[in-house]
């Protein structure tokens, strides 16, 4: 049994919807780092580490003095690099939590919220979702997640997986250099240029568990472009949402029903931008706009 | 044989959803996704494997007589796009075959 209030050196569980991942490590430095990074995602209840939708990840010492990661007892990585171990545990945690959900819609998207009004940022990989999320936090939004949101289309609500923000150095020109953030430690700088940033270091108290889905935004980085906002039809929104469904194989008609329900309910916009800081006022406008609340017009808001 | 004589038939595996008269098609195995605007949705729904492309163009032209001159080309381009997207197959009209004496 994973205890509810464990010591820093005990295994712990994280949850996201129907998914649970239990994490253990014989390398206590690695365990403490992961526990800290995932502290906003911790399970509110004890977990025995077995059952439907449960994955067990463990870092073990190998005979050659290195480390191995096992997933449900099977070796998936050998490495002596703490950064590589932590990055793989975070990746496996995210992927397995997402895929474990069999009834709700899991979208590869960032989620931010202003009060109860949530914005789902449904960008492709490399579109700058995490940087937009970081900029949104600076602009007064709370963070649900920079990577995964769980949506109930019938209720129009979403919840997030508030792992650390993953800011990629390779997304050039998005202005990450002057974010008032600190990198946790060298151990959490990934080997492929990812930096894991604690959202609390951007703004204290910014993590929020859930919100109503007030607007869907499909951001696209476009060099040398002022923000351009275009209202999308429900079908165009569904077309763009479907590739973002992480747990499609678990859902009826691969999520088509859930996605169309969401697209019918929530107004959607495509947003092209070159400077992430300039898009945040647009998000404010979309959340505040009657268009976002009632979505009866396809006229885009003034930018 | 030209496109006008072909008989487009929807690929049955596609799941379809209509939102505000626009179609979204999802192939559950290939995971390919197609979005059709309103006019393309009208054309797609007329594809039944029996009508030829010319038949479909005539039906659409009858509904929009003021734009009839442009419609044949638009319908052919739309069906060609649907075929390239894998949403319809183009079938030859049935051959009369050799006549036995």
Topology:
The complex is a heterodimer of chains A (303) and B (101).
Chain A: E1 12-16, E2 19-25, H1 28-37, E3 54-61, E4 67-71, E5 74-79, H2 82-99, E6 105-108, E7 110-114, E8 117-121, H3 129-138, E9 142-145, E10 148-152, E11 157-160, E12 165-168, E13 194-197, H4 199-202, E14 210-221, E15 228-232, H5 234-241, H6 256-265, E16 268-273, H7 276-288, H8 290-294
Parallel strand pairs in A: 2-3, 8-14, 14-16
Antiparallel strand pairs in A: 1-2, 3-4, 4-5, 6-10, 7-8, 7-9, 10-11, 11-14, 12-13, 15-16
Chain B: E1 7-10, E2 15-19, E3 22-26, E4 33-36, H1 38-46, H2 53-63, H3 68-84, E5 88-91
Antiparallel strand pairs in B: 1-5, 2-3, 3-4
Helix pairs in contact in B: 2-3
CATH fold description of chain B: Arc Repressor Mutant, subunit A
Computed over alpha carbons, the radius of gyration of chain A is 19 Å
Which geometry of chain B do the CA atoms define?
globular
What Rg of chain B is obtained from the alpha carbons, in whole angstroms?
Answer: 15 Å
What is the CA-CA span between the terminal residues of chain A? Answer: 53 Å
For the secondary structure, the number of strands of chain B is 5
Chain pair sharing the greatest interface: A-B, 16 and 15 residues
Tell me the number of strands of chain A: 16
Give a short account of the largest sheet of chain B: 3 strands, antiparallel
Main sheet record of chain A: 9 strands, mixed
Q: What percent of residues of chain A are in strands?
A: 25-35%
């Amino acid at each position: 049994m994973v205890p509810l209030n464990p010591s820093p050196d005990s295994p712990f569980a994280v949850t996201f919807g129907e998914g649970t991942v239990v994490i253990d490590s014989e390398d206590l430095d690695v365990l403490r780092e992961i526990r800290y990074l995932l502290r906003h995602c911790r399970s509110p209840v004890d977990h025995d580490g077995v059952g439907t939708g449960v994955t067990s990840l463990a870092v073990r010492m190998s005979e050659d003095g290195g480390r191995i990661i096992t997933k449900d007892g099977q070796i998936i990585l050998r490495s002596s690099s703490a950064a590589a171990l932590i990055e793989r545990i975070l990746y496996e945690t995210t992927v397995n939590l997402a895929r474990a959900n069999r009834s709700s819609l899991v979208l590869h998207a960032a989620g931010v919220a202003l009060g109860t009004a949530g914005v789902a940022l449904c960008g492709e990989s490399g579109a700058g979702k995490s940087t937009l999320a970081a900029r949104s936090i600076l602009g007064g939004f709370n963070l649900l997640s920079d990577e995964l949101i769980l949506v109930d289309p019938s209720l129009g609500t979403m919840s997030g997986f508030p792992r650390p923000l993953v800011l990629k150095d390779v997304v050039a020109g998005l202005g990450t250099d002057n974010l008032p953030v600190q990198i946790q430690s060298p151990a959490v700088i990934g080997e492929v240029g990812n930096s894991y940033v604690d959202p609390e270091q951007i703004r204290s108290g910014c993590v929020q568990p859930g919100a109503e889905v007030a607007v869907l935004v499909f951001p696209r980085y476009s060099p040398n472009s002022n923000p351009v906002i275009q209202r999308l039809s429900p079908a165009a929104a569904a077309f763009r949402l479907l590739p973002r469904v992480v747990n499609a194989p678990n859902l009826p008609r691969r999520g088509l029903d859930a996605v169309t329900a969401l697209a019918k309910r929530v107004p959607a916009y495509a947003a092209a931008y070159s400077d992430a800081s300039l898009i945040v006022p647009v998000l404010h406008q979309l959340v505040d706009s009657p268009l976002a609340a009632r979505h009866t017009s396809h006229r885009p808001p003034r930018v | 044989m030209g496109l006008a004589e072909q008989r487009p038939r929807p690929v049955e595996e596609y799941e379809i959803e209509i939102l505000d008269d626009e179609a979204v098609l999802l192939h559950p195995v290939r995971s390919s996704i197609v979005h059709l605007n309103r006019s393309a949705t009208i054309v797609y729904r007329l594809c039944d494997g029996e009508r030829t492309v010319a038949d479909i163009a005539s039906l659409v032209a009858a509904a929009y007589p003021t734009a009839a001159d442009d419609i044949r080309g638009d319908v052919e381009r739309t069906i060609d796009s649907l075929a390239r997207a894998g949403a319809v197959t183009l079938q030859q009209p049935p051959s009369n075959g050799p006549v036995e004496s």
